[in-house]
Amino acid sequence: MAKTILVVDDSGSFRTVVKLALQKAGYVVAEAVDGKDAITKLDSAKPNLIVCDVNMPNMDGLSFARHVKASPAYRFVPMIMLTTESQESKKAEGKAAGVRAWITKPFQPSQLVDAVARLCP
């Protein structure tokens, strides 16, 4: 059975690029426009992995990561941050929030697919 990836990014065009790369690799993709939207979709999507941006309106990616990791149902779901943020302080904040991988935009789709495959075998 195909694994489900929840892609959380406020850019529709960016979600499309990520979705196409993941679908081509055989994953099912659910989408959310920000952290608050993603929270409402967790139970229906039942993601095996989450790919999330940091900078979004309503709820940023790091706040969303902390929310997910505080939830007994989702705390073991691996998270990848896919973001323009490259500061070590942000990466450390992500790691503290339970983020397993950090990929900086611009990125190669194959780089993302490889990270997803490693964290969601």
TrEMBL record:
Task: Reply yes or no: does the keyword Transport apply.
Answer: no
4-aspartylphosphate PTM sites in chain numbering: D53
Q: Which UniProt keywords apply?
A: Phosphoprotein
* Gene Ontology BP term (one): phosphorelay signal transduction system
Q: Which SUPFAM superfamilies match?
A: CheY-like
* UniProt key word Heme: no
Pfam families found in the cross-reference section: Response_reg
Domain Response regulatory per the UniProt entry, residue ranges: 4-120
Read off the SMART domains from this record: REC
Which residues, if any, are the signal sequence?
none
Protein name as annotated: Response regulator
Q: What is the lineage of its organism?
A: Bacteria, Pseudomonadati, Pseudomonadota, Betaproteobacteria, Burkholderiales
